[in-house]
Amino acid sequence: MSTDYRPMWQGLGLDLEAHDALLGVLGPLYERTFLTQRDRPEGMQYFDFVMSEVHGLRIQELMEAKQQGRKVVGAFCAFVPEEIVLALDGVLVGLCAGAEFATPQVEQLLPRNTCALIKGFFGFALARVCPYLAASDVVVGENTCDGKKKSYEIFRDLVPSLHVMDLPQTKSAEGRALLRAEFVRFASRLEDLTGRKLTADALHQGIDMVNRKRAAMHRLARLRGADPAPISGLDGLLVNQVYFYDDPARFTGSVNAIGDELEQRIAQGRGVAPKGTPRILISGCPMAVPNWKLPAIIERSGAVIVGEESCVGERGTQNLTVDTGRTGDELMDAIVDRYLTIDCAIFTPNEARVDHVLEMARRTGADGVIHYGLQFCSPYLIESGPVERRLEREGLPTLRIETDYSQEDVGQIRTRVESFIERLRD
Ligand code: BJ8
Q1: Rounded to the nearest whole angstrom, what is the distance from the C-alpha of residue 167 to the centroid of ligand 1?
Q2: How far is CA 221 from CA 103, 216, 256, 257, in A?
Q3: What DSSP string runs through 297-331?
């Protein structure tokens, strides 16, 4: 970052010293993890730039948007409908939750055995180091797992404005009705905030923008199915992570530019790893920036990751919203139907998730699946057993990894991943 953003961060109320410490760790970690990879697509330079400016230029853009009267909506979950936010001229951003920070302060508010993602967003808030949170006019919390649901009761005191969205636990007619009612309530909260009215025209535009963004991600996901893999899993994950921060139209253009480049690479038979390199699909909990621990271990151990069945990945981006409705009600129905297809482990039953893993494995030519569960995350850890058994039955070797954001278990995970990759080679 060449511009001095300190006055902006100060104006946002960040703790400059703690924030400097965060950036001082993030920058070198990014360089070691991403910039040392060989033969990256040139289009990744855009994403390197976005990451180098993720607390700088992008925040400045948000501040400019706010000056023009737009509202910033911060979120932690793939269930927050960006279509509605855009239709009310808002900007949706993902909030920092991918690293541990201020752990002693966090553990004064939350039990130690809370998942790292929840502790992560508490840490960023308590230490005042997330400019996205500081720039948000409203933060959306969702009643998904018990951990999030109960922790939002405490988090409410840490942010100026929290909107809690209730979510169903089943995909029944009653569950759908609840989700619809909650999306309507969310829209009305945003109408109050923005002083705008939700119209069918604006919803059409919001749906169109998000559909284009997701279609670009679908294209990237398809191209990752080529052997040799034209892009690393780390870079694929990075694109999925930037999805939550960047301007949607610019992001879509940048992903499509990568798509064009990957098509050329595939035509030339050019890849980031030799043809026949073991191919791995990751499935499980979301990996928010800068949570790159497991993917880095996997790819440094000689495999290539070809997809993520995750909310920072295909669980979050799969399926477009049908845009043929003419009235606001019809379009709201279409949005609800699209979000109800998200196979989060908070739903019961959740067989569609493992069907999706199998479909992804076939499409990407994956040789095996690594299930990533965050310690203390009951929904995904409990579901990982049935997922593993079904995948193994279907002939897909599966390894379950349970971890957190610390680096203490890196050696142990590496040993398990290496022997799993050997199994895939046999
Ligand atoms: S739609 S996956 S983004 S809830 S890891 S906090 S589940 S204890 S993140 Fe998620 Fe929305 Fe579902 Fe997706 Fe709880 Fe588990 Fe922690 Fe989790």
Answers
A1: 12
A2: 36, 9, 12, 14
A3: HHHHTT-EEEEEESTTTHHHH-SPPP----SHHHH
Q: What is the pLDDT of residue 351?
A: 96
- 278 neighbors 424 (Cβ within 8 angstroms): yes
DSSP secondary structure letter of residue 37:
-
Specify the pLDDT at position 426.
Answer: 84
Residue among 306, 301, 281, 284 nearest 396 (CA): 281
**In the chain, which residues have pLDDT < 70?**
1-2
User: Which backbone phi and psi does 119 adopt, to 5 degrees?
Assistant: -60, -35
Instruction: Give the nearest ligand 1 atom to 144 CA.
Output: 4
Q: Is the peptide bond before 230 cis (omega within 30 degrees of 0)?
A: no
The pLDDT > 90 percentage for the chain reads 99
| Ligand 1 pocket, residues with Cβ under 6 angstroms | 77-79, 115, 117-118, 144-145, 147-148, 285-286, 311, 342, 344, 346, 374, 377, 379-380
Secondary structure (H, E, C), 72-125: EEEECCCCCCHHHHHHCCCEEEECCCCCCCCHHHHHHHCCCCCCHHHHHHHHHH
Of 106, 145, 314, best ligand 1 pocket probe by most atoms within 8 Å of the beta carbon: 145
Q: Burial, 91: exposed, middle or buried (Cβ in 10 Å; 0-12, 13-18, 19+)?
A: buried
292 C-alpha to center of ligand 1: Å? 17
Strands 72-75, 91-94: pairing kind:
parallel
Q: Ligand 1 centre from 40 Cα, in Å?
A: 31
Q: 305 and 298 in contact (C-beta within 8 Å)? A: yes
At residue 1, the pLDDT reads 58
